[in-house]
Structure prediction request, 468 residues.
Amino acid sequence: MAAFHHLGGVELHAQPCQGTACFVARHRDRDRWSSAERSDPRVYCLGRCYDAPAAADDTTAPRVEIACATSILLGRCVDGGAADLTAYRRSGGYEGLRRARSIGVGATLTEVEASGLRGRGGAGYRTADKWRTARSQPAGARVVVVNADEGDAGAYIDRVLLERDPHAVLEGAAIAAFAVGAERAYVYVRREYPAASAALRAAVTEAEHAGILGGPGLTVTVVEGGGSYVCGEETALLNAIEGRRPMARARPPYPAERGLFGQPTVVNNVETLANVPWILRYGGAAYAALGSGTSRGTKAVSLNSLFARPGLYEVEFGIPLREIVEDIGGGVAGELRGVMVGGPLAGVVHPSLLDVPFAFDALRDIGATVGHGGILAFDASTAIVDLVRHVFRFGAYESCGACTPCRVGAARIERLFEAPLSAQARTEWESIVAALAATSLCGHGTGLADFARSIITHYGAELTGCPA
Ligand SMILES: Cc1cc2nc3c(=O)[nH]c(=O)nc-3n(C[C@H](O)[C@H](O)[C@H](O)COP(=O)(O)O)c2cc1C
Ligand code: SF4
Prediction:
């Protein structure tokens, strides 16, 4: 509870991953899953969901492809990556920062606003609005924080971006810092991603030597996480950087008003920032020309090992989810039972709903989410009761402990699902789910409730053998 699970020299090597992609992959053989569950401390998602079940010493690389007409994000990652500055500059790297500086703060904010860019970390908040809020605070120091804690099982987008294209993330952070007037930036990278940390640190050093970062302009500090899923939640993440327990903070004030060490802080996800150099180079209007409705531009989606073609794909917003699942991913070998989009703490998409457009509003309307962009298929070998127990076991382990329904209720639900649900147990779980939805301080608890509600709606008959 409110714990860093991997401090004190805990070695991640050869730890079996217990994340949801590995759960559904291993679940085809229940005994293998049970033995993986006994490993402690637990490792939830190593970002190798394309090769599940995974261990920390796996080195297989994912397939990375562009599945849309115009690529904004993954072009360099497909072409072998641009981890060093020379390669990055060869593809126009740091042109966006140069243009931002030449057009000035106001025009930079206008470009980002015109692009319609929304956060890729889960909440889909408009990036320009967040930057403007931080910019408009009373005079004083401001901070940019890059959220590279990518803990949602099924997502390995940020890991690939950091390993293969770290300068794009740094350039995005530098543009954000320019726009809000920050001289310090922090990148919080999860401990489960050592190669990403190394690539990022090397890129920071290169950019400092080249005079792009450092000095009186922008100082970037890389902070390594301690193995706590909830640190991806932006306020818990700020506490972690400050050296406090990783617990979510009450809002308001929002980080853009009062964040790290009390200073106005823009927290942005890795992928969000990796879009920004393109927007400054080609203009917000060119970006906004792609996508659908309020979901502009393109999005990276990562597919798990149950797909015929697991991997990382760049798609244009608005593409039907069915096309991602069946055409791009090639479908699953067994009977598809559901798709988890944006991690386990979100509503499950039942196969009957696959024609939904992959877009923020459309997914929200069916009780699901874009989330981080991980797309995790499960088949008939995963019993729904086991899936519920797995998700709540994860939720209980990673709860920061601030709210009672999350701290106590998630563990209670895990126990309830160790046996087929009695009518009484079912009433109890539904009342805990209602409390999670109503009283949770952060998206960890409400995400558990969203997941549970989708199970009740679409798979209720499988919980007890009785119709819901
Ligand atoms: C439990 C929980 C975990 C989260 N994990 C992450 C994460 O790993 N990475 C991330 O960028 N955002 C994560 N978020 C969302 C962040 O709180 C925040 O909205 C995001 O970093 C803002 O950046 P964006 O506007 O660019 O999306 C998480 C939220 C919750 C509630
Ligand atoms: S819902 Fe409450 S207890 Fe659970 S992680 Fe968020 S703040 Fe912590």
User: Anything to note?
Assistant: Residues 423-439 form the longest helix (17 residues). The chain has a mean pLDDT of 93.
